[in-house]
Amino acid sequence: MKESSAANIGEGSNEKHVNLRKREKQSQLLISRQKLEMATTCSIPMIDLHDFPNQSSKLMAACEEWGCFRLLNHHDILPSTLMSEMNSVAKSLFDLPVEIKRRNLDVVIGSGYTAGTEKSPLYEAMGMYDIPVRYDVETFCSQLDATPHQREIITKYVGAVHELLMSIAEKLAEGFGVKSENIGFQNWMFQFRMNKYHFTPQTVGLTGVETHTDSGFIYIVQIDEGVCGLEVMDKSGHFIPVDPHPGTIIVNLGDIAKVWSNGRFCNVKHRVQCKEPTIRLSIASGLLGPREAIEPLAELVNIDHPCVYVPTTYEDYRKFRFSKDLQAGEALVLQQTSSFVN
């Protein structure tokens, strides 16, 4: 009896240890989930690419309320290893002599190498506009004397982000009950741009890039992990920090998304602030708009919801923004139909 009791006590003790480990693991998972939820509640919405169509209503709400969101589980299309490799390539390209970087010529104003402006002196950028029609990866790489490895990474990355943009655009169309093949997103203009911010101890607290909206449709933004600075404006007019979160990327909606949705989507205002004295990199890839005139979806226009914007091509609108120096969405007001003009 005593031996049996001792054995039972040992078995009970083992069970307690197993249950304790299970509870500890569950507790750790709960803490991780709570941290993720805190990141989304204190900041912009989180959209899980693996959970569609369940996430469709959440996606549309994020686009209407915020005009931006974090995208989770995108790695089937854009792997984290490729993102890391592209970040390293971007760093090495920015380290090139300025005379080489200047070979990255403008196709349109502001599309090639930029060495900072009076409004954004800490900012440097380079990239490709209207890929592959007016600028292709091979030309870009040749201009910058890119190595075979760098060419391979840039080619893979540009292909992956374009595929991801297509996936997001299709889900936005489906959210409005529209078949994406009827829109022809594949033929829309596509842009790739690398950005570098030269932050120093003297620039902490200053603005790296002033408040603006993006001119195009949707943008994927890969930001340096561990380097903060991006802020988006909420509907109350307050800036909310969008700090790096492992395993996610940022998606922003621009002015053309607001036109396309007949005013339902928000074209998010955002800026970059210098929070610490370090170099900050970001890589932005955008689906800009069609080559022909863009106007609100016919499915969103009716007697109760009249057409808000006049038809315009993306490039005409982009030129208009530059000519009027209206970079924070104000140019859209001047594109409204007569029924919406005060």
Automatic annotation (TrEMBL):
Coiled-coil annotated spans: none
Region listing for Disordered, in residue ranges: 1-24
**Which PROSITE patterns does the record match to this protein?**
FE2OG_OXY
Which Gene3D superfamilies does its entry note? B-lactam Antibiotic, Isopenicillin N Synthase, Chain
The lineage's top-level taxon is Eukaryota
For this UniProt entry, the molecular function terms from Gene Ontology, in alphabetical order, are: metal ion binding; oxidoreductase activity, acting on paired donors, with incorporation or reduction of molecular oxygen
Indicate yes or no for the key word RNA-binding: no
Q: Does the keyword Transferase apply?
A: no
User: What UniProt keywords are attached to this protein's entry?
Assistant: Iron, Metal-binding, Oxidoreductase
Database matches in InterPro entries: DIOX_N, IPNS-like_FE2OG_OXY, IPNS-like_sf, Iron_ascorbate_oxido_reductase, Oxoglu/Fe-dep_dioxygenase_dom
| Occurrences of domain Fe2OG dioxygenase (ranges) | 185-290
What family, per the record? Belongs to the iron/ascorbate-dependent oxidoreductase family.
User: What is the stated purpose of this protein?
Assistant: 2-oxoglutarate-dependent dioxygenase essential for auxin catabolism and maintenance of auxin homeostasis in reproductive organs. Catalyzes the irreversible oxidation of indole-3-acetic acid (IAA) to the biologically inactive 2-oxoindole-3-acetic acid (OxIAA).
Which protein are we looking at? 2-oxoglutarate-dependent dioxygenase DAO
